[in-house]
Amino acid sequence: MNEMYLGQFAFAFYTLIILAGGVLAVTAPSLVRAMVGLVTTLFGVAGLYLLLLAEFVALMQILIYVGAVTVLIFFAIMLTRASADGGEAEGPGLRGSLRAIPAFLIPAGTLVPFLALCGVTGFDRPKDVSPAALGAGLLGPYTLAFELISVVLLAAMAGAVLLAFEKRGAK
Amino acid sequence: MNPLICYQVVAVLLLGLGLYALVARRTLIGMLIGVELMLNGAGLSIVAAAQLTPTDAVLGQLGALLVMGLAAAEATLVLAIVLVISKRFGDAAADTPRELKG
């Protein structure tokens, strides 16, 4: 019973981190601060993965998202920004907010009541899958997906290099 | 409220925050941050659904890893596109490249 309460407390804690980071990522007038909010959110999601006993996914989340994707976006901010704020200082404005608030409310307002009405009752405890089983899955039934994602990553890398070089050649 | 629905609600909130950023942000990088939030919500939803129901848990965790790989590929491409736009047009606001060549 005690660990049940601990789990609920941890869930509430990570959810708070996710929401605080998400709000900062969405509303911060400076893009660098928004990225700090995004990193906070990513750590919170990694914590939820740990709570779900998906520790391999949690570590990959930290490694890939926090380690690679955010650094990539920081590079994008650094290489492109003309002013200190990255062009977000004036905010979305009244019309922008009027358009954006429904974009938040419509999924939240339709999907959350839907979940509350017809959500499936899941287990109380997550299943425990070892990383060895994940590896066996990658080399067994899901080999094609594994190979396809490597091809996609290779194509994305080649495309990025091509795009960046094309500009320099044109100038 | 059972745990599965709690996790799914957090995932829906991440989706909503991402959509908000996608609409409200003026720059391409701000919109990319929104897309990353949405992809995280998707991953969380997949893993929660696989870990807390009789579905194959390996399938769910590998699906989340696949989402992460796609997010990395997408971030790389968006970075290249943002670089090209900011070099050609001077800044990376979303409505700067509004004129077509022709």
Structure write-up:
The complex is a heterodimer of chains A (171) and B (102). Chain A is mainly α and 171 residues long. Chain A has six helices and no strands. In chain B, α1 packs antiparallel against α2 (28-52) and α2 runs antiparallel to α3. Chain B starts with a helix and ends in a 13-residue tail after the last helix. Chain B has 102 residues and is mainly alpha-helical. Chain B contains three helices and no strands. Classes of the chains: A mainly alpha (171), B mainly alpha (102).
Provide a concise account of the structure shown:
Helix content of chain A is 80%, strand content 0%.
Write the layout of secondary structure elements.
The complex is a heterodimer of chains A (171) and B (102).
Chain A: H1 2-27, H2 31-51, H3 55-80, H4 93-118, H5 131-139, H6 143-170
Chain B: H1 3-24, H2 28-52, H3 57-89
Helix pairs in contact in B: 1-2, 2-3
